[in-house]
Amino acid sequence: MKFLRYMSLAALAITIAISPLWAREGREQEHIMALGIDYNLNRGEHSCIPILYYDYLHCFPDSPWYVEGGFENSVTAFVTLAMDTDRFHAGFGPVFEYLIQAGSNYYVDGNSLEHLMIMGNDIGLRLFFEYKWMRHLTTGVTWHPKYYFYTLFSGDDNGGLWIDPPNSHIEQEVLIEVKYKDIEERNFGTLKHGFLARGRCSFAYRQGYGTFYDLQLNRGRFFTITRSDTDRTWKIYCDLGFYYIFKHDFNLQIDLLGSYQYRVDRNNAEQIGTWFADHAIMPGYHNYEFGHDQYLAGRVAMGIPIPFWSTQIKPGYNILYMSDGNGVIGIDDYPRSVYTSVSCEFFTMIGDTVPVWLKYAYGIEARRRGSFSGRLHRGNHELTLYFGVAF
At CB < 8 A and 24+ separation, what contacts does 138-142 make? Predict the structure, then answer.
């Protein structure tokens, strides 16, 4: 069961890293596939996570309509029928998400607490509409009604669950987005030039969630009981990106991401950490190592070209700030407010045909124990390798 969970989490790495490949704008290939692996090496738990992704896009000739479908391991499977014109972009389709709840992961000092993990899944319908005010400025709204259901880990995996899962319930989620994006991308998004500013506001209403009783681990010392009956959650996101291509394809990339969230618990908190987090990407830390209701994440990277096969090396520095008081019900305050990491990405096109990504990151302030009673160590290594195929 742990293997399946790791497979599902790893697919998000592909979603984030090669998303320029499947943007409908300018895409020539109908099929996009990726295969790879993500590995964490530390004094806590090692994890070896396979990466598998497939996306299919078919545009109807002489028509604004298109069909898209695909899967990301077992994290998400979707089919979308949509229309894209010069003025608007709209569509709908079914979506299935597996292990998308933050409560399906709980890491403390590099060790997972499987007896406190809940396998949250949902199936629903997504409808979206985006209006294009001008070439680079858009406003969009998404309605995503879905049904949540929960599956427990088996006793062989975790010795029995210490808590009861929430009730199966219906959630109504509405997302409003305003975006200004003027970015030129080359080499599958490895090279970027331009500016991005995006604001998002999400409101979710859970019907039938009931009262969830959780066990909160206070930095490995003792448990306290917490309860959550919150059925209305607000999340606000702000993204800024600045990218500049200098002479000879030297590429400066600066990203700043922030979020404020109101009335969240361990099951719907933001998932922060690693290369493939949903929003706050923090390379060099465990998958969803942090859960917090107020954070800022920043990244500075410089792409350095190597003159063969479109190769580029991109060293970077990453920083995560979380406010002192953690408002997420069921998750304790963290020992630090600021976490940092260094990273380096390597991209090449083998024979100018097959794209390959190799990523390394070191979490500088990561706390790791061989067990909860063991000695505390610092540092975490994360290595990701994957190949892309398009035809």
Answer: 138/89, 138/177, 138/178, 138/179, 138/181, 139/176, 139/177, 139/178, 139/179, 140/89, 140/176, 140/177, 140/179, 141/174, 141/175, 141/176, 141/177, 142/173, 142/174, 142/175, 142/177
Q: Provide the residue-wise pLDDT of the chain in tens; the chain has 391 residues.
A: 454 444 444 444 433 333 333 344 545 678 988 898 888 888 777 777 788 889 999 999 889 999 999 988 657 899 999 999 999 999 999 999 887 777 777 888 888 887 888 888 999 999 999 999 998 999 999 999 999 998 765 545 545 678 888 899 999 999 999 999 999 998 888 899 999 999 999 999 999 999 999 888 776 567 889 999 989 999 999 999 999 999 999 999 999 999 999 999 999 998 898 887 778 899 999 878 899 999 999 999 999 999 888 899 999 999 999 998 899 998 888 989 999 999 999 999 988 888 999 999 999 999 888 776 778 888 999 999 999 888 8
Number of neighbouring beta carbons within 10 Å of residue 23: 11
Contact by Cβ (8 Å): 96, 77: yes
Rounded to whole angstroms, the Cα distance separating 281 from 286 reads: 11
14: part of which helix (H) or strand (E)? helix 2-17
pTM: 0.87
17/345 Cα distance (integer angstroms): 11
